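Need residues for this backbone.
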């Protein structure tokens, strides 16, 4: 992903003439269309975010998809104040995927005070155009106003293009020395092991950048510095950097701040565009990620038959390694007999306009077996950040499905998809020579839009559906298979996929068989004792390593080490069903006496999960401490005398509530904030 919209505040009226500025920078990092502050006029449904870099920038990018209309559409910038200027520069990257003549014109226009648009550049493609960067000097009457806007527009017969991709919109007034921090896209949003801090610098000034100093900081802590020398970054060229120090953090969400400290040995002339921030998350557990392949195909498509002659055997060889779904399309005419409107929704989701077309984990893959193998190999290097499990039963034509998602970090703007397929069909054969078809989509549950999720770290989400499949294209009712996957709606990245199992009852055992500290079994351990106090010698500074073995080897064990001493290491255990749950705590004290305490039930905290207010019973005059799952203290109450605590100001997630009663008994509970 890439950097978010930067709409920089302006200096005083004299500042542009003296210093110059970057007024707009948009590279579609937020994964939304239109971006914050931007607007669409005409054909808004045809604009989307593509997880691609066809225009020559970095994924994602803006994408316009053809439609059978003769009209005009505009992507319009926010208003900016250009007081005191007579000229301004505008640049952008684009790729125009031409289809036929007369093709729609592509252009750039400006206006002031929401007035009439004035075109400053326009061309009518007669073939593919780009990928290229267009640089414009704008010096019309709109420049100098307080409400200046610029737009990209397309006008004409929109059926005579396939797609147009846009990226890296930059509106600026160049300075002598101006480096802009424009992207942190290559720094992963989610990570487990320490990662490098990566980003991109743009030279928005006139002088070539020969060296740069970059600083980064996590959660306002230690500043890490890196120097990059021997550079030659010309005006409007970019440089991708990797900082020296690795980013390491405790489990949970963190704010990463990265900024340019110096350019060519001195402070930047324009420091307003030097800094970017990004929310990064260390996940509590990583698991293997099962690649999802989605193919758009048709029994009336000769190239589909050619591709499938190699792709089908490849899929058969990797049957246990991937999740596979095929959507039969309604073209070339007359189209596949098993086309459904739900397949059309998925087609529109990806912007498919030709078959065969293939996607792996939401990214487009060229339709050749060597390219499929490359995509598969790359997919295996991605970390899995959630687990999926599903079971289903058939009763006549009715299918009952239960699916559970267990996330290992917080995720927003993602959907869960449940897809009923038939392993092999024959009756949809048509004109391309294929006589059998694998994993043909029959029904999406509840529909092709899926179920919207906002997942909270270690809080399972379960859905149960019962659907009558009568009227679908199913040929054999004993030949069905169900695929499930979770996909980000903005960037289209698939986080995890799996197949459902039929007629299976999943285990609900969520207890431990043992806990060890630094390889030694914990004294007094019992599967039904959930809280342990362990005394460490005075002066201890290293958090002991805690390991645990579950009773059921199919259960999930998540160990979150204490962040400091004294502190608590927690052990979440989820049953094979990913829903049944127990929490064990190992509490480290310094210089005291360790006491193994059984789980105490006389302190009640409800509701749990909670949206903010948590009621406490039997906690009178107790000392209360709230810590993150990683051990950071976020709230303390020295003597609790009320009936509830308000945690609504805390971010969503998992917290540990420690209640120390007047008799020195300590009870710990996991609290989930939604």
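Answer:
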């Amino acid at each position: 992903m890439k950097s978010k919209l930067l709409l920089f505040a302006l200096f005083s009226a004299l500042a542009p003439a003296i210093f110059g500025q970057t007024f707009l920078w948009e590279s579609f990092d937020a994964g939304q269309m239109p971006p914050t502050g931007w607007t669409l006029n005409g054909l808004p449904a045809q604009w989307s975010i593509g997880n691609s870099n066809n225009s020559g920038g970095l994924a994602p990018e803006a994408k316009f998809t053809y439609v059978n209309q003769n009209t005009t559409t505009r992507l319009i910038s926010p208003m900016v104040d250009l007081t005191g200027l007579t000229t301004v520069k505008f640049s952008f990257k684009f790729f125009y995927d031409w289809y036929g003549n007369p093709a729609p014109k592509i252009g750039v226009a400006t206006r002031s005070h929401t007035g009439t648009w004035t075109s400053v550049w326009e061309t009518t493609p007669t073939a593919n155009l780009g990928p290229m960067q267009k640089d414009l000097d704008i010096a019309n009457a709109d420049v100098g106003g307080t409400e200046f806007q610029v737009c990209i527009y397309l006008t004409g017969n929109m059926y005579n293009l396939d797609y147009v991709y846009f990226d890296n919109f930059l509106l600026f007034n160049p300075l002598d020395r101006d480096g802009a921090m424009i992207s942190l896209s290559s720094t992963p949003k989610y990570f487990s092991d320490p990662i490098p801090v990566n980003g991109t610098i743009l030279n928005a000034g006139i002088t070539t950048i020969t060296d740069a100093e970059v600083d980064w900081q996590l959660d306002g802590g230690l500043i890490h510095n890196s120097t990059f020398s021997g550079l030659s970054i010309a005006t409007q060229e970019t440089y991708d950097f990797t900082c020296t120090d690795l980013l390491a953090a405790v489990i949970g969400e963190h704010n990463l701040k990265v900024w340019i400290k110096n350019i060519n040995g001195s402070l930047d002339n324009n420091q307003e565009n030097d800094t970017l921030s990004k929310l990064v998350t260390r996940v509590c557990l990583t698991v293997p990620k099962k690649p999802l392949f989605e193919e758009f195909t048709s029994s009336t498509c000769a190239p589909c038959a050619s591709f499938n002659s190699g792709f089908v055997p490849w899929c058969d060889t990797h049957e246990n390694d991937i999740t596979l779904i095929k959507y039969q399309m309604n073209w070339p005419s007359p189209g596949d007999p098993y086309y459904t409107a739900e397949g059309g929704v998925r087609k529109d989701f990806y912007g498919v306009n030709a078959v065969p077309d293939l996607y792996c984990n939401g990214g487009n893959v060229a339709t050749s077996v060597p390219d499929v193998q490359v995509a598969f190999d790359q997919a295996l290097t991605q970390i899995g950040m959630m687990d999926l499990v599903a079971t289903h039963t058939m009763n006549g034509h009715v299918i009952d499905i239960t699916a559970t998602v267990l996330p290992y970090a917080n995720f927003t703007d993602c959907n869960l998809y449940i897809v009923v397929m038939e392993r092999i069909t024959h009756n949809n054969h048509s004109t391309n020579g294929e006589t059998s078809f694998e994993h043909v989509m029959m029904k999406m549950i509840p529909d092709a839009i899926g179920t919207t999720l906002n997942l909270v770290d270690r809080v399972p989400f379960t859905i149960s559906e019962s659907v009558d499949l009568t009227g679908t294209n199913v040929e054999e009712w004993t030949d069905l298979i169900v695929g499930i996957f979770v996909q980000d709606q903005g960037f289209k990245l698939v986080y995890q996929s799996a197949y459902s199992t039929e007629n299976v009852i999943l285990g609900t055992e969520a207890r431990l068989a043992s806990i060890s500290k630094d390889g030694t079994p914990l004294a007094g351990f019992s599967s039904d004792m959930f809280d342990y106090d362990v005394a460490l010698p005075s002066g201890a500074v290293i958090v002991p390593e805690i390991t645990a073995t579950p009773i059921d080897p199919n259960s999930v064990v998540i160990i979150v080490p204490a962040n400091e001493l004294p502190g608590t290491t927690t052990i979440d255990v989820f049953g094979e069903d990913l829903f049944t749950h127990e929490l064990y705590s190992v509490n480290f004290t310094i210089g005291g006496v360790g006491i193994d305490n059984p789980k105490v039930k006389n302190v009640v905290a409800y509701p749990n999960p909670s949206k903010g207010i948590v009621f406490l019973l039997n906690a009178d005059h107790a000392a209360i401490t709230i810590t993150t799952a990683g051990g950071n203290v976020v709230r303390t109450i020295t003597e609790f005398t009320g009936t509830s605590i308000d945690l609504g100001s805390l971010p969503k997630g998992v917290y540990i509530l420690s209640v120390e009663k007047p008799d020195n008994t300590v009870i710990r509970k996991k609290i989930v904030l939604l």
